[in-house]
Amino acid sequence: MPRTLTALRSPAPFSTAKSMIWLLQSLTLVSCLGPGNTVSQTSSTPLIVNGVLGESVTLILKFPVEEKITSITWLHDGKSAVFIEPNEALNRVTDPKRKNRLNVTESYSLHLSNLTMADSGHYRAQITTLTSLLFTSYDLRIFRRLRNLQVVPHTKWSNNRTCEILLTCSVENPNDNILFRWQVSGNTLQSEANLTISWDPKSFNEETYTCIAENPVSNSSFSVSLQSLCKSVTNEKNEHLDTTWIVVAVSSICIVVIIVSLFVWRKKIGFFQFSTQQTQCPGNRNPKTCEKQ
Protein backbone atom coordinates (compact mmCIF):
# COMPACT_ATOMS: atom_id res chain seq x y z
CA MET A 1 0.00 0.00 0.00
CA PRO A 2 1.34 3.49 -0.85
CA ARG A 3 2.33 5.59 2.12
CA THR A 4 1.17 9.16 2.44
CA LEU A 5 4.10 11.51 2.53
CA THR A 6 4.46 14.67 4.58
CA ALA A 7 5.86 17.78 2.96
CA LEU A 8 8.98 19.20 4.57
CA ARG A 9 8.28 22.60 6.06
CA SER A 10 10.89 25.21 6.80
CA PRO A 11 10.74 28.92 7.49
CA ALA A 12 13.64 29.42 5.10
CA PRO A 13 13.04 29.97 1.35
CA PHE A 14 12.48 26.85 -0.74
CA SER A 15 15.84 26.92 -2.51
CA THR A 16 17.68 27.37 0.79
CA ALA A 17 15.69 24.55 2.41
CA LYS A 18 16.60 22.18 -0.41
CA SER A 19 20.26 23.12 -0.09
CA MET A 20 20.24 22.51 3.66
CA ILE A 21 18.51 19.14 3.25
CA TRP A 22 20.99 18.06 0.61
CA LEU A 23 23.90 19.15 2.80
CA LEU A 24 22.56 17.26 5.83
CA GLN A 25 21.99 14.16 3.73
CA SER A 26 25.50 14.36 2.30
CA LEU A 27 27.04 14.77 5.74
CA THR A 28 25.03 11.77 6.96
CA LEU A 29 26.30 9.70 4.07
CA VAL A 30 29.91 10.72 4.66
CA SER A 31 29.70 9.94 8.36
CA CYS A 32 28.14 6.55 7.67
CA LEU A 33 30.79 5.54 5.15
CA GLY A 34 33.95 4.86 7.06
CA PRO A 35 37.11 3.05 5.87
CA GLY A 36 36.39 -0.13 3.95
CA ASN A 37 32.86 0.87 2.95
CA THR A 38 31.85 0.80 -0.73
CA VAL A 39 29.98 3.10 -3.09
CA SER A 40 28.32 1.36 -6.04
CA GLN A 41 25.54 1.64 -8.57
CA THR A 42 23.27 -1.38 -8.98
CA SER A 43 22.92 -0.70 -12.72
CA SER A 44 25.27 1.18 -15.02
CA THR A 45 22.45 1.80 -17.52
CA PRO A 46 19.33 3.64 -16.30
CA LEU A 47 16.14 1.62 -16.35
CA ILE A 48 13.72 3.01 -18.96
CA VAL A 49 10.22 3.48 -17.51
CA ASN A 50 7.29 4.64 -19.65
CA GLY A 51 4.37 6.50 -18.10
CA VAL A 52 1.01 7.66 -19.47
CA LEU A 53 0.03 11.31 -19.23
CA GLY A 54 -2.57 11.74 -16.47
CA GLU A 55 -2.08 8.23 -15.10
CA SER A 56 0.27 6.67 -12.51
CA VAL A 57 3.63 4.91 -12.52
CA THR A 58 5.84 3.23 -9.92
CA LEU A 59 9.63 3.22 -9.94
CA ILE A 60 10.45 -0.17 -8.45
CA LEU A 61 13.31 -0.11 -5.94
CA LYS A 62 15.47 -3.18 -5.35
CA PHE A 63 18.04 -3.27 -2.56
CA PRO A 64 20.02 -5.90 -0.61
CA VAL A 65 17.72 -7.39 2.01
CA GLU A 66 20.58 -8.55 4.22
CA GLU A 67 21.85 -5.03 4.83
CA LYS A 68 20.28 -2.56 7.22
CA ILE A 69 19.19 0.63 5.46
CA THR A 70 19.72 3.91 7.26
CA SER A 71 18.21 6.24 4.64
CA ILE A 72 16.88 6.44 1.09
CA THR A 73 16.79 9.58 -1.04
CA TRP A 74 14.87 9.82 -4.29
CA LEU A 75 16.28 12.42 -6.69
CA HIS A 76 14.69 13.91 -9.80
CA ASP A 77 17.14 15.48 -12.26
CA GLY A 78 19.64 15.86 -9.42
CA LYS A 79 17.17 17.51 -7.00
CA SER A 80 15.83 15.82 -3.88
CA ALA A 81 12.20 14.72 -4.18
CA VAL A 82 11.72 12.33 -1.23
CA PHE A 83 13.82 11.54 1.85
CA ILE A 84 13.15 8.31 3.78
CA GLU A 85 14.44 7.07 7.13
CA PRO A 86 13.11 3.52 7.58
CA ASN A 87 14.23 3.24 11.21
CA GLU A 88 12.29 6.36 12.15
CA ALA A 89 9.31 5.52 9.91
CA LEU A 90 9.84 8.98 8.44
CA ASN A 91 9.02 9.92 4.85
CA ARG A 92 9.49 13.52 3.77
CA VAL A 93 8.54 15.05 0.43
CA THR A 94 11.27 17.55 -0.33
CA ASP A 95 9.48 18.74 -3.48
CA PRO A 96 6.41 20.61 -2.18
CA LYS A 97 5.05 21.15 -5.70
CA ARG A 98 4.35 17.43 -5.95
CA LYS A 99 3.54 16.59 -2.34
CA ASN A 100 0.04 15.39 -3.28
CA ARG A 101 1.28 13.23 -6.15
CA LEU A 102 4.29 11.48 -4.60
CA ASN A 103 3.97 8.37 -2.43
CA VAL A 104 6.30 5.67 -1.16
CA THR A 105 5.29 2.01 -1.15
CA GLU A 106 6.07 -0.44 1.63
CA SER A 107 9.18 -1.50 -0.29
CA TYR A 108 10.24 2.18 -0.61
CA SER A 109 9.49 2.33 -4.34
CA LEU A 110 8.44 5.74 -5.64
CA HIS A 111 4.83 6.06 -6.83
CA LEU A 112 3.84 9.07 -8.97
CA SER A 113 0.19 9.80 -9.74
CA ASN A 114 -1.57 12.14 -12.19
CA LEU A 115 1.55 12.31 -14.35
CA THR A 116 2.46 15.49 -16.20
CA MET A 117 5.10 16.09 -18.86
CA ALA A 118 7.21 17.82 -16.21
CA ASP A 119 7.51 14.50 -14.34
CA SER A 120 9.68 13.04 -17.09
CA GLY A 121 13.43 12.97 -16.64
CA HIS A 122 16.17 11.18 -14.73
CA TYR A 123 15.42 9.66 -11.32
CA ARG A 124 17.92 8.16 -8.89
CA ALA A 125 17.38 6.20 -5.71
CA GLN A 126 20.27 6.75 -3.29
CA ILE A 127 20.36 3.97 -0.66
CA THR A 128 22.57 4.32 2.40
CA THR A 129 23.36 1.27 4.52
CA LEU A 130 25.77 0.79 7.42
CA THR A 131 28.49 -0.38 5.05
CA SER A 132 27.73 0.96 1.58
CA LEU A 133 26.11 3.56 -0.62
CA LEU A 134 24.03 2.23 -3.53
CA PHE A 135 22.49 3.98 -6.50
CA THR A 136 19.71 2.90 -8.87
CA SER A 137 18.89 5.08 -11.89
CA TYR A 138 15.72 5.44 -13.95
CA ASP A 139 14.72 7.42 -17.02
CA LEU A 140 11.01 8.23 -16.90
CA ARG A 141 9.33 9.05 -20.21
CA ILE A 142 5.76 10.37 -20.43
CA PHE A 143 3.53 9.70 -23.44
CA ARG A 144 -0.08 10.30 -24.43
CA ARG A 145 -2.38 7.46 -25.39
CA LEU A 146 -3.17 7.40 -29.09
CA ARG A 147 -6.58 8.74 -30.03
CA ASN A 148 -8.71 9.23 -33.15
CA LEU A 149 -6.78 7.15 -35.66
CA GLN A 150 -8.04 7.95 -39.17
CA VAL A 151 -7.32 6.79 -42.71
CA VAL A 152 -8.00 9.29 -45.51
CA PRO A 153 -8.26 7.74 -49.02
CA HIS A 154 -7.56 9.50 -52.32
CA THR A 155 -8.69 7.38 -55.29
CA LYS A 156 -8.82 7.76 -59.07
CA TRP A 157 -9.06 5.55 -62.16
CA SER A 158 -6.01 5.37 -64.41
CA ASN A 159 -6.00 5.07 -68.20
CA ASN A 160 -5.37 1.33 -68.01
CA ARG A 161 -8.56 0.88 -65.94
CA THR A 162 -6.87 0.26 -62.60
CA CYS A 163 -7.85 2.02 -59.39
CA GLU A 164 -5.00 4.13 -57.99
CA ILE A 165 -5.27 4.67 -54.23
CA LEU A 166 -3.29 6.84 -51.81
CA LEU A 167 -4.01 6.03 -48.15
CA THR A 168 -2.91 8.49 -45.45
CA CYS A 169 -2.91 7.40 -41.79
CA SER A 170 -3.00 10.00 -39.00
CA VAL A 171 -3.73 10.42 -35.27
CA GLU A 172 -4.78 13.31 -33.05
CA ASN A 173 -1.34 13.82 -31.42
CA PRO A 174 1.16 13.14 -34.23
CA ASN A 175 4.29 14.41 -32.45
CA ASP A 176 4.26 11.90 -29.61
CA ASN A 177 6.93 9.43 -30.80
CA ILE A 178 4.49 7.53 -33.02
CA LEU A 179 5.38 4.76 -35.46
CA PHE A 180 3.09 3.85 -38.38
CA ARG A 181 3.01 0.67 -40.44
CA TRP A 182 0.73 -0.88 -43.05
CA GLN A 183 -0.22 -4.55 -43.05
CA VAL A 184 -2.14 -6.83 -45.39
CA SER A 185 -2.94 -10.44 -44.51
CA GLY A 186 -0.69 -10.11 -41.46
CA ASN A 187 2.36 -9.06 -43.50
CA THR A 188 3.96 -5.64 -43.07
CA LEU A 189 4.19 -3.70 -46.34
CA GLN A 190 5.98 -0.59 -45.13
CA SER A 191 6.61 1.46 -41.99
CA GLU A 192 5.21 4.82 -43.11
CA ALA A 193 2.00 6.77 -42.69
CA ASN A 194 1.29 6.94 -46.44
CA LEU A 195 0.64 3.96 -48.72
CA THR A 196 0.17 4.03 -52.51
CA ILE A 197 -1.35 0.95 -54.18
CA SER A 198 -3.14 -0.10 -57.38
CA TRP A 199 -6.20 -2.32 -57.54
CA ASP A 200 -7.35 -4.17 -60.64
CA PRO A 201 -11.10 -4.90 -60.59
CA LYS A 202 -10.53 -7.91 -62.88
CA SER A 203 -8.55 -9.66 -60.17
CA PHE A 204 -11.58 -9.91 -57.86
CA ASN A 205 -9.17 -9.43 -54.95
CA GLU A 206 -10.89 -8.16 -51.80
CA GLU A 207 -7.81 -7.61 -49.65
CA THR A 208 -8.10 -5.43 -46.56
CA TYR A 209 -5.28 -3.05 -45.68
CA THR A 210 -4.69 -2.12 -42.04
CA CYS A 211 -2.88 0.92 -40.67
CA ILE A 212 -1.30 0.36 -37.25
CA ALA A 213 -0.12 3.29 -35.13
CA GLU A 214 1.78 2.75 -31.90
CA ASN A 215 3.88 4.51 -29.30
CA PRO A 216 5.53 3.09 -26.16
CA VAL A 217 2.26 3.12 -24.16
CA SER A 218 -0.54 2.38 -26.65
CA ASN A 219 -1.48 1.24 -30.14
CA SER A 220 -4.42 1.58 -32.49
CA SER A 221 -5.44 0.20 -35.89
CA PHE A 222 -7.82 1.04 -38.75
CA SER A 223 -8.72 -1.17 -41.73
CA VAL A 224 -9.99 -0.30 -45.22
CA SER A 225 -11.21 -2.40 -48.16
CA LEU A 226 -9.79 -1.51 -51.58
CA GLN A 227 -12.84 -2.86 -53.38
CA SER A 228 -15.22 -0.65 -51.42
CA LEU A 229 -13.04 2.43 -52.00
CA CYS A 230 -12.85 1.86 -55.76
CA LYS A 231 -16.56 1.05 -55.98
CA SER A 232 -17.35 4.41 -54.45
CA VAL A 233 -15.26 6.10 -57.14
CA THR A 234 -17.02 4.06 -59.85
CA ASN A 235 -20.43 4.98 -58.45
CA GLU A 236 -19.51 8.66 -58.38
CA LYS A 237 -18.33 8.43 -61.98
CA ASN A 238 -21.53 6.62 -63.06
CA GLU A 239 -23.65 9.16 -61.22
CA HIS A 240 -21.84 11.92 -63.10
CA LEU A 241 -22.43 10.17 -66.43
CA ASP A 242 -26.09 9.56 -65.57
CA THR A 243 -26.54 13.23 -64.75
CA THR A 244 -24.90 14.24 -68.03
CA TRP A 245 -27.15 11.95 -70.06
CA ILE A 246 -30.23 13.22 -68.24
CA VAL A 247 -29.31 16.82 -69.04
CA VAL A 248 -28.68 15.95 -72.70
CA ALA A 249 -31.96 14.02 -72.98
CA VAL A 250 -34.03 16.77 -71.37
CA SER A 251 -32.40 19.40 -73.56
CA SER A 252 -33.08 17.36 -76.70
CA ILE A 253 -36.72 16.87 -75.76
CA CYS A 254 -37.13 20.59 -75.12
CA ILE A 255 -35.63 21.42 -78.52
CA VAL A 256 -37.93 18.96 -80.29
CA VAL A 257 -40.97 20.35 -78.47
CA ILE A 258 -40.01 23.90 -79.45
CA ILE A 259 -39.52 22.94 -83.11
CA VAL A 260 -42.83 21.09 -83.26
CA SER A 261 -44.60 23.97 -81.55
CA LEU A 262 -43.17 26.46 -84.06
CA PHE A 263 -44.19 24.23 -86.96
CA VAL A 264 -47.74 23.84 -85.66
CA TRP A 265 -47.98 27.58 -84.98
CA ARG A 266 -46.89 28.46 -88.50
CA LYS A 267 -49.36 25.98 -89.96
CA LYS A 268 -52.15 27.56 -87.96
CA ILE A 269 -51.17 31.08 -89.09
CA GLY A 270 -51.16 29.97 -92.74
CA PHE A 271 -54.56 28.34 -92.38
CA PHE A 272 -56.09 31.48 -90.85
CA GLN A 273 -54.73 33.66 -93.69
CA PHE A 274 -56.12 31.32 -96.33
CA SER A 275 -59.54 31.23 -94.64
CA THR A 276 -59.71 35.05 -94.60
CA GLN A 277 -58.96 35.29 -98.30
CA GLN A 278 -61.63 32.72 -99.12
CA THR A 279 -64.18 34.76 -97.20
CA GLN A 280 -63.36 37.98 -99.06
CA CYS A 281 -63.34 36.40 -102.55
CA PRO A 282 -65.61 33.42 -102.51
CA GLY A 283 -65.25 31.18 -105.55
CA ASN A 284 -62.05 32.89 -106.67
CA ARG A 285 -58.96 30.84 -106.22
CA ASN A 286 -56.58 33.56 -107.38
CA PRO A 287 -55.77 35.96 -104.52
CA LYS A 288 -54.28 38.56 -106.95
CA THR A 289 -57.50 38.73 -108.94
CA CYS A 290 -59.41 39.18 -105.68
CA GLU A 291 -57.21 42.11 -104.74
CA LYS A 292 -57.80 43.87 -108.08
CA GLN A 293 -61.51 43.57 -107.63
Briefly summarize what is shown.
The strands form four sheets. Strands 2, 3, 4, 6, 7, 8, 11 and 12 form an eight-stranded mixed sheet that branches. A four-stranded antiparallel sheet has the order 1-9-10-5, with no helix packed on it. The protein folds into two domains: 3-143, Immunoglobulins (Immunoglobulin-like, Sandwich); 150-232, Immunoglobulin-like (Sandwich). The protein has 293 residues and is of the alpha+beta class.
Class of the largest domain in CATH? Mainly Beta
- Which CATH architecture of the largest domain would you pick? Sandwich
For the termini, the CA-CA separation is 131 Å
Number of domains: 2
CATH fold node name of the largest domain = Immunoglobulin-like
Low-confidence region ranges: 1-40, 234-242
Radius of gyration: 43 Å
The main pleated sheet reads as: 8 strands, mixed
**β-strand amount:** 35-45%
**Overall body shape:** elongated
Topology pattern, helix = H, strand = E: EEHEEEEEEEEEEEEEEEEEHH
- The tally of helices reads 3
**Beta strand count:** 19
The CATH superfamily name of the largest domain is Immunoglobulins
Mean pLDDT: 77
Relative helix content: 25-40%
The secondary structure category is: alpha+beta
